[in-house]
Amino acid sequence: MNMIKSDEYYMQSALRSAKTAAKHGEVPIGCVIVRNGKIVARGYNTRETKKNALHHAEITAIDKACKKLGAWRLCECTLYVTLEPCPMCAGAIVNSRIKRVVYGCSDAKAGAYGSVLDLREYPLNHKYEVTGGVLAERCAGVLSDFFKELRKKQKESAE
């Protein structure tokens, strides 16, 4: 499987996780972590249902991957996420030593890989590759559709 097809394949899996989040009333952001061509962990936002600011898709997936692999270093892993990681998640990526990050759409409000700031520009102890824009339109569409539906429901309940 070539790199581009591989990235799209795994991003589609992250999109499925994002759609699961939406079904639970969560902002639809999904994440998968891959090692040696196999998905080792999945995550999606659960901030609303868990009432916890830390429950971003990436944090959940990193936690699951560490438990499954029995290590905090995820050096041979690639993280796929539908939205550009925020500074908190980018910090967790650095600390877990993930080898590569692939994200879908940019986040103009909180993106840590160039949209608001670029965490890679700081002299941190871990360097890794970042690829953005994989299935960006589909990833953005899932978010846009979710918020459009949310606004519609809020308007209906206010009437």
How does the helix and strand content classify structurally?
Answer: alpha/beta
The Rg value, from CA coordinates, equals 15 Å
Helix content range: 40-55%
Strand order of the largest sheet: 2-1-3-4-5
- The percent range for strand residues is 15-25%
Notes on the structure:
By secondary structure, the chain is of the alpha/beta class. Helix content is 45%, strand content 18%. The protein is built from five helices and five strands. β3 (77-83), α4 and β4 (100-105) form a beta-alpha-beta unit. The termini are far apart.
Briefly characterize the structure.
The chain is α/β, with parallel strands linked by helices and 159 residues long. It has helices at residues 3-23, 47-50, 57-69, 87-96, 136-158; strands at residues 30-35, 38-44, 77-83, 100-105, 129-131. The chain is globular and about 55 Å long.
Write the topology of this structure.
Blueprint: H1 3-23, E1 30-35, E2 38-44, H2 47-50, H3 57-69, E3 77-83, H4 87-96, E4 100-105, E5 129-131, H5 136-158
Parallel strand pairs: 3-4, 4-5
Antiparallel strand pairs: 1-2, 1-3
What keywords describe this structure?
159 residues, alpha/beta, five-stranded mixed beta sheet
